[in-house]
Amino acid sequence: MIDFFQILFAGFAQGTMYALIAIGFVIVYKATGVLNFTTGGLLMFGAYLAHHAVGGWGLHFGLALLLGAFATGGVGILVQTLVLSRMAGKPHFTLIMLTWAVLIVLEQIPPAIWGYDVLTMGDPWGISMTSIGPLSVFTIDLWAVLLAVAIVVALYLFFRFSRLGIAMRATAIDREAAMAQGISPNTVFNTAWCLAGAVAGVAGIFLGGGARVVSPELSLIALAAIPAVIVGGLESPAGAVLGGVLIGIAEVLTAYYVPVYAPWLGKNFHLVMPYIVLIAILLVRPYGLLGTRSVRRG
């Protein structure tokens, strides 16, 4: 039973990283109506930059984390300003494919600078373990959960109480009405892309830390988070958190128990599990667990 709860916590920690990535998707979608596929490149860029900040420049990991978040937030603003803002009014499908093209470009930059070899993050926790009662968990997973919770709370407070956050909510509900009230859509879009880039950068740094490594394959994790976005509901930040945690737990439990109890399913069956969960939930709730019915009808 102790093993089960330890694996459950590992899945929860993995899920919180998916939740951060999913929140990035949701923020951009709510503000612009675009499903942002650049997230994988932003995530990867944050991880490589943090690696270099610690190993190359000798910065403390905390400073490297902040640097990675600010830098990926800045890249998000650049993508919005230099590319997407020039396509205003174009069909959403065109914009979505444009983010896909930007992703392919972004994915080439870190390997061109740091090479294709796997790298270590240089985080202060490595493979060290921490005791929580009878449980022993990876220290980096514990920090990842705490930081993810802090980010989710900060985002809630930002959208609930800040002037800019309220403006973003108003724009998401009715863009024309918000513009009529003097809200600048460019400010809203830039903020959305900045926040999405920053949370993707943080997620990438923790996904490349501990016993894991920094490599070009980090970008693929953003694709694994897409089921979390859909499961939770494409327009719901709370749904992104719920979907991320659910997908993370399902994936990690599958990775542990399938080789033991159902090896005939294959050693990589856990990679399929998020999509099985996605299909199962959409068959019951086509608009996601916390999505709106308007998404289902669209």
| Radius of gyration over all CA atoms, rounded | 19 Å
Q: Structural class of the helices, strands and pairings?
A: mainly alpha
* Order of SSEs: HHHHEEHHHHHHHH
- Give the percentage of residues in beta strands: under 5%
Bin the helical content.
over 70%
Taking the alpha carbons of the first and last residues, their distance comes to 44 Å
Kindly summarize this structure in a few lines.
The protein has helices at residues 2-32, 39-55, 61-82, 92-114, 139-161, 163-173, 175-180, 185-207, 219-232, 237-261, 273-284, 293-297; strands spanning 129-132, 135-138. The protein is mainly alpha-helical and 298 residues long. The chain starts with a helix and ends with a helix.
Describe this structure in words.
The chain is mostly helical. Helices cover 71% and strands 3% of the residues. The protein has helices at 2-32, 39-55, 61-82, 92-114, 139-161, 163-173, 175-180, 185-207, 219-232, 237-261, 273-284, 293-297; strands spanning 129-132, 135-138. A two-stranded antiparallel sheet has the order 1-2. The model has no long low-confidence stretch (mean pLDDT 88).
Which structural traits does this protein have?
298 residues, mainly alpha, 12 helices, 71% helix, 3% strand
